[in-house]
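User: Hey, quick favor. My workstation is busy. Could you predict this chain's structure for me?
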Amino acid sequence: MTESRKRLIYAAVLVVAVLVLLYAFGVFTPSYTLTVQLDGQGSVTPAAGEYSHTSGEAIAFRATPSEGYEFAGWAATAGTFSAASNEQTDFTMPSEDARVTARFTLKEYEVTFEDWDGEALDVQTVSHGSAASAPADPERDGYDFVGWDVEFDNITAPVTVTALYEIKEFTVTFEDWDGEVLDTQVVEYGSDASAPQEPEREGYDFVGWDTELEGISDDTTLTAQYEIREYTVTFEDWDGTQLALQTVEHGSAAAAPEEPEREGYEFVEWDTRFDAVIDDVIVVAEYEILQYTVTFTDWTGEVIAEQTVDHGSAAEAPAAPAREGYNFVGWNVDFAEVTSDLAVAPQYRIRTYAVIFEDWDGTFLGSQTVQHGDMAVPPGDPQRFDHRFVGWDADFGDVTSDLVIKAQYEPLVHRAIFQGASLLFGVAIQVYDDPAMDAGSRVGNPVTTGAAGMAAKELISGEYWFTAVRAGYEELQGSFTVAASDATVPFNLAPLPGTVSGTVLDESTGEGMQWAGLTLFAGESTASERFITATVTDADGLYRLQNVPPGSYTMLVRAHGYERVVEYPVQIRPGEEILGWDYSLARVVQEIDSITLEDFGADWMSFLVVDVDGQPYDGTVPWALQLQERPGETLQDVPHNVSYDPVWDPNIDAQGRAVLTYRGLTVAVDSSVELQTVIETDDGAHSLEVVLRMNVIGDVQER
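Assistant: No problem, here it is.
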């Protein structure tokens, strides 16, 4: 052996020894190939392929069969499974290469074919997705097989397939005695036909059909059956006495008996034909009665009616002939049962009438009974308060009917004098005689007050209602009573408030000024106690003062940095709306630097105002007062409201000091409330906050 070969052998042995030592101490572990494969359709985790693992290593496997397949277990050439039949298992790698196979098999299902009554016709085992084979078509009495209730060409689950049938149908024809088709019906096997309405045949009675209607099992024709009718023919006299009785077939003739006799009558015929009898019939003898002439005349003998009357019957009296001044009392001859020709004349009695005299209110004054055409004698003239008797309402010199005669009067006329307060002229006053005061109850035309505020209307005594209307005033409604003399009706109209509107302009630019303040004072004064109302202009410089009582006012117009405008008089008339009452304001130089609170009380505060030059503010810039709730915990959930009557323009002296008062402060709360007063210039540049704390228990406290 050569030296070089020896060295190679020694080196190989050394390498093996080193590997054995490394393996023994766990430094080197050999790995083996694990091949994962599928048998059937499904998936496996880890996926099919080759992997390297060491001996004893545990590998988790999970098999998922595809639709229509089921897992059939694991197989391996070497190594062990924790559960070879479970879809999820652990595999222990052996000390050699190994092959793991996930096996899947196609599912099989049972397909059962049943008849209509549940009887099993065939049972088959079919693989998933395959088709079952239908058995021979079943049979059922009275039915036709039409198929199966479900499809079975792609089986994916156990299924029961049931035979379907359609019941057989037959034609049932109903015919009359002469072959005429009365009805045609389609009837299911074993069912009953429904008889149509019973047919009719003149002179016959329907008695049924020649074939049964029940349990139809084939096409069937049924024919109507009849029996000829017989009728009773009764011959009777006029009073119902039976003269003869016969039985006759339909269409045949009856035989008439001998003609009957009747006292006072002549037989003329039978009332009904009987030569072709088609029903039970009563034949009655008919007669003609003897007749007479009844003549009616009036009291002068003139014929007024003539009648032909049957023997023993009553004549019909005509309307009683009228005779002026007389009452018809009857006829001179009885004609209730006429047995011969008659002449009938009327009988009369002269009329009398009741004449009653009454006063205007229905009071009885006297009565008389007067014959037709005579004259009644009246009682003495009656009297009525506040009225003059003028006669009777009807003539009674030639009485021709009952009369009720009433006394007539004329009411004495008085004046209603309407006197308006403040000598208000031009008021239209409409008088009504009904409290509804509608158009139908107006008393003449309205009257209008003159310069003295008065108007008069002539009225009779009674109760009246009126309306008083004048532009600019609220409409007034009232009532009054006119007795036996003139009546004075005082009234007073409440004036409607007026409105003033216009624009406040910047004199230098001609543009509208926003936040300009306008305050209206009563009379020729701007004293705070004469304050009426106030407002500020909008973004376009427009303002509107509404609900202003009529009168003369002083208007104060002011804005921060502008000279004030004081105008008197601003005259507001009742209900007047003044438009375009415009103002122009000139700018001023003085500006405010600070506002300092000096002291305050329950309903007042004093403060010091200094301009930007450190000089006392002279009061040319207007002030605005705002009283509001100060945010705080004590007010968060407390229902409350605050109201007050402020003095909007505090007087500022030459030293820049002023006292601001507010009156009538009212707070309604359920517990303590904290308020603040904020004084600020109209431009909002400076403000002073004063905190007032009030403890309010109950409803209202005033400070």
